[in-house]
């Protein structure tokens, strides 16, 4: 158990094994206290269900921030995920006013995959999300999000290491200290992560699994944030996160289409971060 308290800001998709229903159990299993700030409440996520309800909670953010300031509540880490268009400034404010000394920021710029923005995000949202990346200690984009953040057209395959290096260089120019780029592949059988501290890039690869599943980005980011707070290096945290994503996918029956069975890897995650 660490004494550190993390605040995660992302939506509650009531059904769908993503965002807060993943972050809370996963970060708790890492032995890290996890406070939550829901950005929105949806009946279910937007990644494959034909429709959903959506309640934007932007109005709550400033009220909650004021109450936390009054009560002297602060956080050692912030981890942001799926947030709404108008929430960038309120979130930046919370990360300033409710930060304990040395607090870190982990920004997963959740907004796109497979070359496309998620439903509901306007074309100008990546520029807003880029403002959240400025000053982040870690940003965790997938290849599509990374391209949108820097104003490029997404390239999803057929690239060489110099494309990844150029993309990471541009992402650092947004003001992020570490870039953790997911979904990188130089040969078809391997899928991995590029981890950059602005000086050098290290890679971690796993065998590519046949299935592509929803919610894996949230599993990755939650394990990564928890492992960083448990003192792992960025590369160790990224490798652990990738292992836990693979274990979650492998535990998921083919008939289960809307998420991954991340619950099955929780005991292994807790074991690997024990002590
Ligand atoms: O897993 C990312 C995510 C989070 N929250 C909502 C989503 C998605 C991806 O589709 O729709 C509401």
Task: Specify the CATH architecture.
Answer: 3-Layer(aba) Sandwich
Rg for CA atoms: 17 Å
Q: Largest beta sheet, briefly?
A: 9 strands, mixed
| Multimerization state | single chain
Q: Could you give the order of the helices and strands?
A: EHEEHEHEEEHEHHEEEHHH
Q: What share of residues is helical?
A: 25-40%
DSSP helix count?
9
At CATH level 3, the topology is UDP-N-acetylmuramoyl-L-alanine:D-glutamate ligase
Number of strand elements? 11
Give me the side-by-side strand order of the main sheet. 3-2-1-4-5-8-9-10-11
CATH superfamily heading:
Ribokinase
Bound molecules: 3-hydroxy-5-(hydroxymethyl)-2-methylisonicotinaldehyde
Average per-residue pLDDT, rounded, comes to: 97
- Alpha-beta content class: alpha/beta
C-alpha termini separation: 8 Å
Tally of distinct domains: 1
Strand content: 15-25%
Quick overview of this protein structure:
With 275 residues, this protein is α/β, with parallel strands linked by helices. It has helices at residues 20-29, 58-71, 88-97, 125-133, 143-149, 161-173, 216-229, 234-250, 266-272; strands at 5-15, 33-44, 54-56, 75-80, 99-107, 112-113, 116-117, 138-139, 178-184, 190-196, 201-207. Helices cover 37% and strands 25% of the residues.
Task: Describe what this molecule looks like in 3D.
- This protein is an alpha/beta fold and 275 residues long.
- The protein has a single domain (5-269), classed as Ribokinase (UDP-N-acetylmuramoyl-L-alanine:D-glutamate ligase).
- It is built from nine helices and eleven strands.
- The protein has helices at 20-29, 58-71, 88-97, 125-133, 143-149, 161-173, 216-229, 234-250, 266-272; strands at 5-15, 33-44, 54-56, 75-80, 99-107, 112-113, 116-117, 138-139, 178-184, 190-196, 201-207.
- The chain has a nine-stranded mixed β-sheet, sandwiched between helices. A two-stranded antiparallel sheet has the order 6-7.
- Helix 1 (20-29) links the parallel strand 1 and strand 2 (33-44).
- Helix 2 (58-71) packs parallel to helix 3 (88-97).
- The chain is globular.
- It starts with a strand and ends with a helix.
- 3-hydroxy-5-(hydroxymethyl)-2-methylisonicotinaldehyde is lined by residues 11, 13, 18-19, 42, 45-47, 82, 110, 118, 215, 217-218.
């Amino acid at each position: 158990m660490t004494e550190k308290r993390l605040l995660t800001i992302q939506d509650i998709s009531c059904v769908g094994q993503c965002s807060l229903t993943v972050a809370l159990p996963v970060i708790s299993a890492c032995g890290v206290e996890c406070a939550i700030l829901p950005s929105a409440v949806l009946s279910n996520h937007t990644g494959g269900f034909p429709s959903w309800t959506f309640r934007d909670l932007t109005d709550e953010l400033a009220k909650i921030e004021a109450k936390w300031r009054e009560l002297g509540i602060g956080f050692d880490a912030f981890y942001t995920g799926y947030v709404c268009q108008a929430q960038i400034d309120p979130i930046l404010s919370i990360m300033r006013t409710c930060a304990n000394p040395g607090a870190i920021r982990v920004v997963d710029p959740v907004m796109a995959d497979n070359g496309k923005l998620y439903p509901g995000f306007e074309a100008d949202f990546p520029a807003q999300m880029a403002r959240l990346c400025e000053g982040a200690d870690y940003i965790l984009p997938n290849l599509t999000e990374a391209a949108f953040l820097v104003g490029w057209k997404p390239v999803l395959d057929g690239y060489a290491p110099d494309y990844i290096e150029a993309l990471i260089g541009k992402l650092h120019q947004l003001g992020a200290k570490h870039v953790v780029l997911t979904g990188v592949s130089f040969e078809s059988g391997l899928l991995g992560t590029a981890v950059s501290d602005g000086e050098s890039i290290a890679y971690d690869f796993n065998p590519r699994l046949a299935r592509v599943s929803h919610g894996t980005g949230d599993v990755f980011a939650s394990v990564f944030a928890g492992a960083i707070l448990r003192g792992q290096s960025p590369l160790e945290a990224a490798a652990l996160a990738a292992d836990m994503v693979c274990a979650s996918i492998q535990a998921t029956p083919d008939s289960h289409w809307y998420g991954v069975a991340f619950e099955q890897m929780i005991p292994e995650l807790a074991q690997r971060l024990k002590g």
